[in-house]
Structure formats: C-alpha cells, structure tokens
Amino acid sequence: MGSISEFFQHMMNGLTLGGIYALIALGYTMVYGILKFINFAHGDILMVGSYLGLFTFNLIRGQELGPWTIVAFFIAMIAGMIFSAGLGMLIERVAYKPLRRATRLAPLLSAIGVSFILSNMAAWMWGTKSRKLDYPFDNSPLHIGGVAITPHQILILSVVIITMVALKLFVDKSRIGKAMRATSLDQDTAKLMGIKADRIISITFAVGSALAATAGFLIALEIKVYPSMGTMTGLKAFVAAVVGGIGNISGAMLGGILLGLLETFGVALLGIPYGLRDTIAFVALIIILLVKPEGLLGKVEKEKV
Amino acid sequence: MLNFILLIMIYTGIYALMAIGQNLITGYVGLLSLTQAGFFAIGSYATAILSVTYGWNFWATVPAAALIAGFFGLLIGLPTLRLKGDYLAIATLGFGEIVRNILNNWDSLTNGPMGIQRIPMISIFGVQISPYTKWGFLVIVWVFVLISYLLFERLAKSRIGRALEAIREDEIAASSMGINTTSYKVWAFVLGAAVAGIAGSLQAEFILSVTPGAFTFMVSIMVLCMVVLGGMGNFKAVILGAFLIQFVSYFPQLVGLSNVIPPQFKQVLFGLILVVMMIWRPQGILGRETRSAPGKPFRKGGRS
Known about the structure:
Number of helices of chain A: 11
Number of strands of chain A: 2
Strand content of chain B: under 5%
Radius of gyration of chain B: 19 Å
Strand content of chain A: under 5%
Largest interface: A-B, 48 and 51 residues
Largest sheet of chain A: 2 strands, antiparallel
Strand order of the largest sheet of chain A: 1-2
Largest sheet of chain B: 2 strands, antiparallel
Oligomer: heterodimer
Number of domains of chain B: 1
Structural class of chain A: mainly alpha
Radius of gyration of chain A: 19 Å
C-alpha cells in the first residue's frame, strides 16, 4: 500500500469520527449560545438516545438482512431522536429553567447532577455490559483506489452531511431559526420583539438532543454502547465546540471534524499510543485556550458591566 | 457496628479534606471544579510511589503529595482561570479522566491497572499506626482535618478570603478594585488541589494499596455533593456534608441491605441531591457563613 492511499484511509476514518463529534458539538454550542452554560447532561442524552435507537432497531429489524433492515435502521434512529428530544426538553424544564435567574454556578451543578442521574439510571436499568448495533447491511469494505471504505462509514458520513445541511438551513432560513439567533444574540430584546424565548430555548434543547441521539446511534455502529459512554464523548465534543468557537454553529462543525482528524492522525502518524488517545482532545483544549480562547471562528467578546 | 462507624468516620475525615478544598474554589470563588478525584489520585500515588519505590517515610510523602497535586493544579489553573469560569469545569472534568488514563497506562511508574500494593504503614516515634485497629488512624485523619479547617477558615476570614468572595460576586468590580483576579483564582485552586493531595496520602495509607479504579468521577461528584449539601462557603457545613454523604454511601451496608439496594441507587441519589438542592435550597443545609452584622437578612448569592 502506498503512503498516499494510507493517508486517504486515515482521512476517511478521521472524517467519520469527526462528523460524529461535530453532531454532538452542535448541541453544546447551540445551548451555550442561548443560555451561556454548559449542558453537562448532553453526553448522557446521547447515551440514552443511543440505547433507545438500539432497542428499537433490535425490536423491528427481523432476521434477514435486506432492504427492510435499512428502513428499520432509519426508523430506529428517528425513534431515538424523538425520545431524546423529549428528554432534553423535559430536563430543561425541570432542572434548568427554575435556575435561569440564579447564580452562574447553579445550573452547572444541576446539569452535573442530571448527567450523573442519567448514566446511573442507565446502568441500573440496562446493566453495564456494553452492546453493539449490528450492521443493517453487509459491511465488507469497498476498495476505491487502495482506500478501504466500509459501507457503514459511507452511511455515517451521509447522515452527518444531511443532518448538518438541514440544521444549517433550519437555523439560517426558517422563522424559528431566526428567532433562535435573535434569542442567542440578546434574550431580553428578543422577548421585546415578541419572540417567546422560553419556547425557543425548549426547541433548542430538543434539536440539540435529537442531534446527540443521531450521533449516539451512529456511534453504536462504530464503537460500543454503555452507560458511561456519554462522559468522554461529550467531553470531546465540547472541546470540539470550544476549538471551533463556542456558540458558533459552523465552528462546532469545523471543530468536530478537526478533532476527529487530529485523533486519527495523532495515533496513526505521530505515534501517540492508543491508550492515550483520549488525552489528545484535552491537550487540544489547553492549547486553544492558551492561544485563541475565543476559538477558530468565534468572536472576541468583551464582558460588559 | 462500632467498627463500621469508625470506618465511616475515617472516610468522612478523608473526604472532608477534599471538601474543604472544593469549598474554597466552589464556595468562595464560585467556580466549578470537577476534579478533586484527580488530585486525590495524584496524592495517593505520590505517597504510594515515594514510600514503596523510594522508601520515603509517610510524613515526608505528605508535603510531597500536597506539592505535586498543587503543581498540577497550577498547570490546569493557569490556562483556564484567565478565562470565564466555565472552562475550568470542562478542563477539570477532562483532567480527572486523563489522570486515570495515565495511571492505567504508565506501567513503569504506576504498575498500570494492578496498582501498587504493600504500602508501609504510618509510624509515629516508632509506633506503627495500623489502619486495621482504626482508632489510631481515626485520630490522625481528624488531626489533619482540624489543622486544614483552622488554616482554611483563617484564610477565608482574611483579606484574601474577602478578595475571593468579591471575585465570586462580581469579577469585573473586583478587578476594578485592584484585585488581581486571575492570581487569586489560581492560588485558591492550587490550595484546593493540595489539600486533596493530602487526602490522597491518607487514603493510600488507609487502604495500603492504590489502584486507578478507586479514583473515578464518582469521587469528585461525592465531594461536590458534600459542599452543596452542607452549604457552600461554610467550612463547618462541608464537614457535616462529608459525614452525611459518607453515611448515605454506607447506609445499605450498615443496615445489611447491600444485596437489596443496587449500587447505582446511591449514585442516582447523589445526582438528585445536586439538582434538588440547587432548586430548593442553593445555600445548603447550614447556609453560607455571613460576615455581616446580626439582624441583617440573609441575602441569596447571585447577580441580578
């Protein structure tokens, strides 16, 4: 194998991973943009969505692989998304909304609490054994010019691209998206303009959680599903959001992709031991905070009195 | 039964040390740090490695543990604390995981997932303090708690403590009063890390072995719960919180129901404590210690 094809191979793997990070990072960044707080439970919402999708798929898939399994795959994904969206809205209503006017610390602590509740409830109900989603199709790799691309990678990438384009259109073009941007810019003024800020916040949580569930379901194809999966995945996605510029939607996409590539190439080319792969994101966070704390696409915001 | 109560009291002491450190950074400066477990692990491993591999005396490893933990505190604190508070939360959350990751993988130093066994016991003037008899160990732990309590309480009542509270209430106002906010925040964080390192030393001596599995995220959550439940910004309250959380934690064993109650139950409870306290009683059971004149109504913290 030539080194060029090897490079493209890592590129492909990095893009797949990065696309998943990007989907999760979007949820962090959207919530941060509006409420200025880190939703620590985001990673655990992903985990719940992942489990729900997996259960639904196993329930309806039937025995044989065929066109139906692919349909079942998407039905399961949408089921996970809907459930997670509901869960995200519920959490916002119960655990964050009463704290809107409290100290900055209060919603953060509440979010940590919710995160811990979700991951332990999952361990309690579904056990700590990790599960894996079966491929809804034959997954023997296709060779394109020396690069082995598995069908599931194509599936992941296409879902990621479609979701991102849809989200970008939704936020930039639709009325609700416009209201979201207005609320994120200045909540009080947005309210004065007749925007129901509470509803917009609710929708933001629903959309972010649905994206997390999508990512979780795709992760189930790639890696395994277990109750504490949300912690590390969520952490990395947050780093991606910070790298891209927290609060900035395109930034989250860029940051996610970059982090995925960085992790893949870090292990493959720089010789970072696989066991220390998780530290890459952390080092990236520290570096970006030192060099460019507002992120690649973020704006420098001066805190006002 | 008595044995069990002694065990709870020893762990209360060890965790109270960590809670005192957490209180300085969370209760006084108002920043969320999620990595007392990380510093706890560093302190534990410092004592384990220095005493087993290099034959140091326990009493020499304690300041070393505090210094090393404090140094790592400085390392995370410097880049993150210059910025808005939220970054500290995420960086510390990552740090705790990274520490465990490294402990698991750096075989030559930490012996990987197996950990380090046969840590020599503490001795004072040639008398060995065995953790199995518990009474002696209990006294040692609580002497550490008392000293830390007095030091941190003094610190909090001093000019430095007032500066930290000013930062919590309004960082911009504090810095315009001439307070170097970054430096105060970093030192508060380093002190909190150092005292957690000492707690780690004691933990290593109590268990006589260290393994990476003992320093999970749950430890950090428990410490956070102690501070939130007892009362942020009140050192007596967080020690009470430490006792309550340890009591809850060992309650199933105490009443012999550990087979009936699943282990996740108490973790879910810890999560609930955080959410419920934030919504209904953010000042904790005992509330913040106010320095204002008696008769002045209690004011909830927070900006309008």
